[in-house]
Amino acid sequence: MKYDLAVQNALILSSSDMTQATLAVKDGVVAAILSPDCCVDADETIDATACWLLPGLVDMHVHIRESLPGGSERIQAETRAAAAGGVTTVVVMPDSRPPVADAASLKERAELFREHSVVDFALTGGAGGESLRQIVDMADAGAVGFFGCLGAYRDSGSGLHCASTADIFQVMERTAQLGRFIGFHCEDPDIVSLFRSRAHEAELTGSSAHGQGRPEFAEVLSALTLLETAEVTGARLHLMHLSSPRAISMADLWREEGAPITVETAPHYLALAEEDAEDLSVPARTAPPLRTEESRGDLIELLQVGSIDVVASDHIPGSAGDDLGLPGLETALPVILDAAIAGELTAQEVVLLMSENPARVSGLYPGKGTLQPGADADFIIVDPSETTRVAPQDMYTEDPGGAEIYHGLELNGRIEHVFGRGQPLSRRGEVISDPGRARWMWLSDEG
Ligand SMILES: [Zn+2]
């Protein structure tokens, strides 16, 4: 058989394995994984000797926050950031401006992404307030999952926040019937509000004000409410960007009883601790905030024993000023690869946490998140012997200010090539694909 593309001599990684082999691509999908000494006939070949070949990342926690209608430039910039960082599928949070709160806004957003995104995408719907009665319609229109806040971000628009535990219960009841995941930001808004005003009264500033305004027990309290409500309703709860080892260990208790709960953390909680904050050139305005070095170590241990399912960027562009969050699409994989090369996790775990599991939770597996034959040929070639220096000024994201927390870091490993459905998306961080060929991903039949 003649293939379109063959990547030879790479170490091909899956969540359970690494094999020296040749990846053969035809019509945008993985056609075969061939023995390295097999003769292969292809229009184009890439020699990937001494490199790792991973499935493209499925980042299931991406905020783009473009305005609807309009917002095309923001979508282009942020999905270029994805292509540069090895993220070949973005699962987009519903907080466009205004948010995705019904089927019509979901479809409108999909059209905008189809035209302007550089990478494949899946969309989620808002779950709370005005969108409660729209959940079934949004699922029918193509929402792969839902996202709710606990009132902490009332300024981010209606249709995203659950103002009470009764709201949380009703949202979970509905998403349970549909079998789609329901993601929640885990911080008790009342506790955050109290502690933030105390930090303000104590005239704390910068990172210490931010950290003390969002104590760990606020995360644990909201996780408790969400876990028990998921247990009662049968919802597929996805706890987003947990930073608290205590909250993660607690989730294990419900999982041991069989509740279909998944746990996510973000690269910054694995790479940085609050003790590092004083040395950072900008405050790390993440919510939840960075925790202690001891917590960071506990988080790595929980990851190693399988208590964390997903590592996602929680990418938020435009994090200047008081806005919370960091742009993470261009740093997530480099930061985690560095940890893998340092031995904090295995290369197979990188695939499990950043490609395979997020594809499964989002219902996109096995079309996405794996390199088994028949899957989309989304892949990343990494040279583990090279290094990457983080340079926010060179990033594609519209406002890379928040990425200054990694400024100048010399990370082990370098992304050499990123391919989406067999087509080159980026080369050493430079995007070489234009918008217009992105595919809107719905649930996979087998997923
Ligand atoms: Zn988020």
Can you walk through the features of this model?
- Strands 1, 2, 3, 4, 5, 14, 15, 16 and 17 form a nine-stranded mixed β-sheet that branches.
- With 447 residues, this protein is α/β, with parallel strands linked by helices.
- The two termini are 29 Å apart.
- Helix 5 runs antiparallel to helix 6 (206-212) and helix 11 packs antiparallel against helix 12.
- The protein is globular, with a radius of gyration of 21 Å.
- Strand 11 (236-240), helix 8 (245-256) and strand 12 form a beta-alpha-beta unit.
- The model has no long low-confidence stretch (mean pLDDT 93).
- The protein folds into two domains: 2-53 and 377-394 and 403-431, Roll (Urease, subunit C, domain 1), CATH 2.30.40; 57-361, Metal-dependent hydrolases (TIM Barrel, Alpha-Beta Barrel), CATH 3.20.20.
- The chain has twelve helices and 17 strands.
- Zinc ion is lined by residues 61, 63, 314.
- Zinc ion binds at residues 61, 63, 314.
Write a compact overview of the structure shown.
The chain folds into 2 domains: 2-53 and 377-394 and 403-431, Roll (Urease, subunit C, domain 1); 57-361, TIM Barrel (Alpha-Beta Barrel), CATH 3.20.20. 31% of the residues lie in helices and 24% in strands.
Question: Please, what is the average pLDDT?
Answer: 93
CATH architecture term of the largest domain: Alpha-Beta Barrel
Strand content: 15-25%
Q: Could you tell me the radius of gyration in angstroms?
A: 21 Å
| Total strand segments | 17
Q: Give me the strand/helix succession.
A: EEEEEEHEHEHEHEHHHEHEHHEHHEEEE
Helix content: 25-40%
CATH class of the largest domain: Alpha Beta
The residue ranges in which pLDDT falls below 50 over 5 or more consecutive positions are: none
Bound ligands, named by name, code or SMILES: zinc ion
What's the tally of helices? 12
The CATH superfamily of the largest domain bears the name Metal-dependent hydrolases
